[in-house]
């Protein structure tokens, strides 16, 4: 913040219009570096003369707030992404996926999201945030347990999370995040985008439901205009983690007012799954059930249940809305309009 007209710097004095001594400090126009007329100034003889005429009229001082232009967004070179795309034997998330999906599918999903491996921690995964102009904005490094697929935590119970910029000590990196998977929106034909919170969720759902483009906000707070802006022309269905429905729904209502076509699925809210459960957890859970070789007998009849029956039971008894969700997906694979009506 600064004034346009200020006292001349230095010790130069001029003749005072009141006492005629050479004691007047004049005002200078900082934009032109020129003096204001002689009348504007202050006499140094504060006790005896007290002449002081501040700039007024056409010289009235206005406060100027200096606007510093926003620093340009920093990007990582694509080379870094390429370089990270290796060593998947030491990538816990990829190893976890191998228990459920075949290598071909996993290879495809690695290439789709350009998933990387980091040496920051043994087994760590890099999720690159590449925007719709193919610029690399962020590399999030996370560590998963290769057996459970859950986030690994240290002794203090904190999850391992870092970034490529801190691993490379790029302290001046001007981070401006985008949706994980945003680079895929230029390629899609259906114009329907599914948004979830976690990067891992997006990757896994893309394996289960490759016909949709799955993007991740990276955090629940990142479900907001700045991040979702590039999706304005798409039909968006968001699947918040359990217990986050109302927050996302509030945001969606705001966004609808400014022209977004966005709906929030509330199916997880109705399930008995614990808070924080995401769509992929549920799909993996079902898959585990399918693979399970444990013999299950129905309690009141003693009948041995087939796997299909076990799944049906689980859906029916503990998770009634899950059946709904699956039928939503099955129904809508051939009719994209349905999914919009069903997701509230
Ligand atoms: Zn004077």
List keywords for this structure.
344 residues, alpha+beta, Dna Topoisomerase Vi A Subunit, Chain: A, domain 2, 5-stranded antiparallel beta sheet, 4-stranded antiparallel beta sheet, 11 helices, 15 strands, elongated, disordered C terminus, binds zinc ion
Outline of the structure:
This protein is an alpha+beta fold. The protein has helices at 78-84, 92-98, 103-113, 164-167, 199-208, 225-228, 245-257, 279-291, 307-317, 320-332, 336-342, and strands spanning 2-3, 5-7, 24-29, 34-35, 41-43, 52-53, 63-64, 116-118, 124-130, 136-142, 161-163, 192-196, 213-216, 235-238, 261-264. The chain has three domains: 2-64, no CATH class; 71-178, no CATH class; 185-344, Dna Topoisomerase Vi A Subunit, Chain: A, domain 2.
